[in-house]
Amino acid sequence: MKRETLWNAIGQIDPELVWDAAPGRKGRRGAPWMRWGALAACLCLTAGLFALPRGSGRWAELAENFRPDLSELAPVPRWEELSDPQRYQFFSFQGLEYTGRGAQLPEDRLGEPLGEGEALGWDEYAQGDRERRTAVQVRAVTRIDRQCALAVQFPGGPEWYAFVQPAYRPGTLGEFIRALNLEEELTFGPAYCERRDGSGEYLSFRYDGVEADRVWALLLSAPESENVWDDLAQAPLQDLSLSVNLPLLGYENISIGVSADGWLTTNILDTGKQFFVGEEAAQAFLDYVQRECRGQEFVPEGGPSVPE
Predict the structure, then answer these.
(1) 16: number of Cβ within 10 Å
(2) pTM for the model
(3) Which of 160-169, 227-236, 252-261, 284-293 has the lowest mean pLDDT?
(4) What's the Cα-to-Cα distance from 112 to each of 15, 140, 159, 180, 281, rounded to whole Å?
């Protein structure tokens, strides 16, 4: 991966890396892109920290003390070089903490005005207090649950940006689909998996042409399935990773993982969700991808992945 600036690199991962970066997979030791993956993991953990109540300054204290090691990354731009969505990536509203990915919302997706919130950022080059705060206007996002995402407008600008709440935990798959309007918002890219060749070596394959109706019919048709994700437990080893996009909220090339024993795992909204959709449905989807989609072997950047 090219040594782009930190702010351009976050969230712009090559789709061929989705398989290795998805929940439950081990990365390649020493691969250059792993530095970005480690930072993304740090940011996800940071998002979890911000889900805590602010109380008497604890919110800001945790943020100030939790600092990823950026020594091996390209320099962070100076405060004056950044846009408002890059400066202020955390936002607080009615006791909930949201994070932004710089996704600008179209006018027709702006819901009712909700009032004023506060955005938080850090000036890495400032002397003394690096914390920066600003008041922002807040609106709902049409057809998206307010627990999942809100629209934010920074002072002096007409644009509205999507901010999501990583701490949102759906009770069931159906609730998750409805809350994010996934039937309309979610799109699908290639699928990725690994297979052994005759010598026992693992080979990586990419499958194009995955049809959305097959995903919905086989993987996303168990609305009663409960979300059983435990942040302290290891996700099930997935047999296939499907690249998905949720462009309204700024997500591209993230993952839905499928295991042959019936589990579906995803990192939509930056934190894990895990649902049991059934062995029969999961195996049927795995068979469909490998038999009916256009498959080709590829070597991910950095060399072959190391199986668990």
Answers:
(1) 17
(2) 0.74
(3) 227-236
(4) 35, 6, 15, 17, 40
